[in-house]
Amino acid sequence: MPLVFAAAAEGAVSATLVASFNGGSVQVAVSGAGTTAAVATPTLSDAGPIGFGEIQVGKSAAPHTTVLRNPGTAALKIATLVIDGANGGDFILGGSCTVNATLSPAGSCTIDTSFKPGAPGARSASLLLVTDGGTQFSLPLTGTGTAIAAAPALTLAPQSFDFGASAGSKRFTLSNAGTAAINLSSANFSGPFTRVADASGCPALPFALQPGASCDMVIGYTPATAGASNGSVVLQADGGGSWTIALAGQAAATPANAAPAQNQGGGGCSSVRGGSDPMLALLALMAAAVLFWRRRKPAQS
Predict the structure, then answer these.
(1) I want to staple 112 with a disulfide (CB 3.0 to 4.6 A). Which of 17, 94, 139, 157 is the partner?
(2) Virtual CA dihedral for 98, 100, 102, 108, nearest 10 degrees?
């Protein structure tokens, strides 16, 4: 008669087989051990949604790592590993876990997910993992894309100017051609150039120039010496924006004052200043000759 052992539980089991007949009985000790079938047991380190917060459009969030472990007694195979959902293209999948990879008992692998929004607003998807044993995991992925910050777009007209030989002032138009306000913080001048206060011009620094707005900055040229002058004004904005206006000038030399003409020697003109003019002696001689001639004329008549 065959004897079959069917363990009802895991562990060692022993019993006694008793066979009875007309002349007596026979006892036989029997034993066995119950064991469980090998089973894979996949687990994930994350149980809830994976959120990436706010990320600027076109930039990537730091990767989030999820660990797949197999604490079971049989190997498992990854049948499906994808990112799916309405905005699946905005999330990135990586890590050491791959489709068709086998995970041995007590083994593990990693699943890296990241967020790179392609448009502003709330974005969502799901991480889907299925094993060959039919176990399925689905982790929600969320993030919000933020718009790209508008770059300052300040235009200057003109961008350079030469005052030439005349000291004076010039109006320079500052225009905001962008979509965000420009917070101008300072204006640094070099050379004999300075800002001139003007009630109809730009406000005193610092000030914000709104999108589509413009104002005039009046700059004066006040050379202290003759000759060529070069300089600039550098406009600085919050956030590191910088714009430069090149300036130049050519101050004319001031003519020296001419010495005033001097008239020496009473009513006559003289070309010598030292008191030894030969014309005076000649005039005196001529006067003496006339007097001598007049005195002799009556005596001859």
Answers:
(1) 94
(2) 20
Spatial contact of 44 and 64, defined as CB atoms under 8 Å apart: no
Whole-structure pTM value: 0.49
Whole-angstrom Cα distance, residue 51 to residue 77? Answer: 28
Question: Quick one: 135 exposed, middle or buried, by C-beta within 10 A (0-12, 13-18, 19+)?
Answer: middle
Instruction: Enter the tokens of residue 2.
Output: 């065959």
Strands 136-146 and 50-56, sheet pairing: parallel
Residue with tokens 């079971």: 72
What's at 156, amino acid-wise?
Answer: L
Q: CA-based diameter of the chain, in Å?
A: 224
* Residues ≥6 apart with Cβ < 8 Å to 253: 226, 227
Note whether 101 and 109 are within 8 A (CB).
yes
213-235: pLDDT as tens digits: 999 999 999 998 899 999 999 99
How many CA atoms lie less than 13 Å away from 259 in the CB half-sphere? 3
Are 141 and 165 in contact by the 8 Å Cβ rule? The answer is: no
3 state SS of 67:
strand
